[in-house]
Structure formats: structure tokens, C-alpha cells
Task: structure prediction
Amino acid sequence: MSPDAFREQAVRAVEAVADYMRRVETLPARPPTKPGDVLKHIPKSASESPGDAHEWTRIFDDLERIVIPNMTHWQSPNFFGYFPCNSTGPAIIGELLSAGFGQQGMLWATSPAASELERALLDQMGRAMGLPESFLSASESGGGCIQSTASDATLAAMVAGRRRVSDQGTDFHKTTVYASSQTHSSFIKAALITGLASTVSDTSRVRTIETDNQLRMDPAMLEAAIREDIARGLTPAMVCATLGTTGTTAIDPLEYITRVLRDTGATEKGCWLHVDAAHAGALLVCPEHRAMITGIEHADSLCFNPHKWLLVNFDCDLFWTRDRKALVSSMSVTPEYLRNAATDSGEVFDYRDWGVPLGRRFRALKLWFVLRHYGLEGLRAHVRMGLAQAELFESLVRADDRFVVLTPRTMNLVCIALRAGDDATRQLMDTLNQRGPSYLTHTTIPTSGGDRYAIRVAIGATTTRDEHVRALFEQMAAVATALGAGG
Ligand code: PLP
Result:
């Protein structure tokens, strides 16, 4: 494809995106697609011959015919499922340029611009979020990088922790890891990948810590588990504290957890404390929401996903560590063909050593454009708007006594149910999702009376406004009436 031919079709693509942005509100957030609906349109084998002069017209037609009608519209203002997955113009432009420049930023030497922009932006964001200087790259052993996902960050932290305690003399095979029962499934996945667990239910080296009545890790239970393990000759290698659990956005008591690690001697043995703030980290751009990171100066790493609620589209997980030396030494493998003078000088960051992939895209561009376009003020305004909308939604729910809010709202997620019970709540959600235009997802919440089925209303899509939140509640109330769900 020549540069001129590229320009012609790329302009069409940009127009298609702008057009999609304009009309996404009119599309049902969840498509009525059945399994196989897309498959049946796609030929079994790729075409042998190159496309003719009309191929691009057919491609854009196929997007309208096959792709768009079968997409879940995460960018709809009526998308309230999972967590938001923001996309914005500045970030999309960054994606386009990243692909266009085709950088491969595995080493500083393979793309100095990608490496140094990423490093500088992680410092900017660290400062914007109130992280201590020890997490920034000018410090003796701190700094940050962009991982693809929070799952990658958890895996990197687990590998680094296991290596660090081993370097301090612990038998690699006698290490244990800890997280609350509400932590994200990526924690156990990391244990599977590192070999700390052989199956999801293998608890020989993976400890699931109970939570309190607000579903936060109970630090007394953590302390008991750590002391018991140390007494049995095991060594805690990694603890994952979650700020904003996936189910209910519960916030683990970080400061208390750091104290447990010090008091039990786990810190001294090298135990790595990772803070998973995948969703909630966005709040940290607002100074009034930083209480949850009290004690962060004692943690070893923290990650959060601007690709959730902070206007940078997927994928973009920011991962900082206070101990890059331990992190890098746990994953660095240098074959001869990657050796170069810049690496040998020790002056540069080679980000291939900070995670699983060798090759790395130029993701810093989209973060940079978002930061420059919106400024920190714009990011704060977006977060505060999501919080205000969640507060609005919660107040509407509380004013209708057929509904109940099941967990304290800590941020932009409201977990609700019908008082009529689980079956009615499930029916309510299924009906809303079938009718559209909104999309909702659920969780189960452990209570003293057993698990409760809860609808999670996660607010914070880029385009959601108060009117969408009000409309959602009106639809809910109408369906509750139709279901005969009394108070
Ligand atoms: N951690 C938490 C607390 C999450 O809520 C999620 C996803 O929602 C993840 C980790 C996994 O995120 P990712 O898709 O970036 O791996």
C-alpha cells in the first residue's frame, strides 16, 4: 500500500471512527448476537488473490454489516457493566501514530523515544497521583513502565517477590503468596503461571485471606496466616493488596497491611507488597482521594489502568516499583544479539526486562496525548463527574424502597438488588440487558445470610451524562414494576 493509497483509506477509517463516536449512543450497548452469528459471515480460508480496486469499499461495508452490529458498545454512554473502558480522541490518535511509526521498544536502543517518553510520563503520572519520589525514575531504584494489563503487573510483582526472597537465602520452593478472597482472578492466574499453584484450588502456597464485613482484607487474618507460614518454615514472597476490588470496589487497608508485613518479619525476608489499584488508581489524580494509599512508601509496586476510567484506551496499565533492580533481575535474560553499549552503560531503561514480552509498542504516545489534551484538570473533572453520577444513581436507588444498596459505595460502582430477592434481581438485570439500551453485569456478595446476587452499576464511560444515569434508573424502576417486585 503506497503512502497515498494509505492516506485515502485511513481518512475513511478516521471518518468511520468519528461517525461511530457520533452514533454510538443510539446503538444498544449489548448486541443481540448469538454464538456463530459473526463466524457464519467469514470465509473459512483467506483469499489467495489480492483485493481489487473495490476491496476497500467492501471492507468498509463489512464493518457496517458484520462487525458493528455484533459489537458490545463499551463506548456507549449506556454501558454500565464490568468497569468502564474509556476511549477518547486523543488516545485513538496516539494509537494510530504508534502503529504508523511501527516502533519496537524492547530496548532503549531500539527506540530511545519510546523508552524515554514512557519513563518520563510514568514520572509525571506518579507525581500527579501523589506517589512518593522513591517510585520515580530519578530515585535510586524506582521507576515505572506501561504494562499491557493489571494482570501482567501482578505477574511481574509475583516473579520479582519470589526472586527477591530467594536472593535473601530462601528456598525458591518454600515461598508463599497472599491476597484477599475478593482479589482479582489475575492473582491466582499469576500463581498458576509462576508454578506457585498447580490448579486454581491448590492452596499449598497460595493463601486466600478472609475479608471484613465491607469485603476488605482483614489484616489480622493476614497476620495469622503469615505467622503460621513462617512457623512452618515457609517464606512470604508476595502480598497483593487491592484498592478497589472488582466485585464491589472494596479498599484493602494498605497502611495496616504494611505494618503486618513489618511486624511479622516478612518485609525483612524480602516479601514484596504489590498494590493492585487497577480501577481505583484513577481516583488518585484527585488529592482528596489519596487516603487509600497511606503507607504506599512501604509498598514495592503499584499498578492502575488508565484504560479503565482515565480516558486512555486499552491497553495501558501503569506499573511503578520502588525496587526496579529486583524486578529487572528477576526477568532479565540477555542473549548476545540484544547486547548494546547503551544497556551496558546502565544509564537507560530497557523495558523488555520489566515484564513478559520482549517486543513493546509505543503506548506512551496515547498517554501523552491524553495528558496534554485534557491536562490533569480534565482528568480530575472526568473522575469527579463519574463519582457525582454514582452518587446521583445511589440516591435514586435509596429513594425507592423496592431496592437495596448492598455494599457501601466507595467510588463509582453501586451494587444493588431488589428486596424481593435474588431471582427477582437476576430477572431485572436480564430483562434490562435484553431490552437495551443499557448493559449491566452482576456479582455475588457474601453476607451473613449467604451469597446475594447483586447488579453492579459501574459508572464512568467517557460519554455518560446525568441523563443516562437517570434514564437507567427509570428503566429499572419500570421493569421492577412489571415484575411485581414490591418492597
Ligand atoms: N485487578 C482488578 C482490581 C481489576 O478490577 C481488574 C479488572 O477489572 C484486573 C485486575 C485485571 O485487569 P486487566 O484486564 O488489566 O488485566
User: Anything to note?
Assistant: The chain has three domains: 3-82, 103-361, 380-483. DSSP finds 14 helices and eleven strands in the chain. Residues 3-82 form a domain with the dopa decarboxylase, N-terminal domain fold (CATH 1.20.1340.10). The radius of gyration is 24 Å.
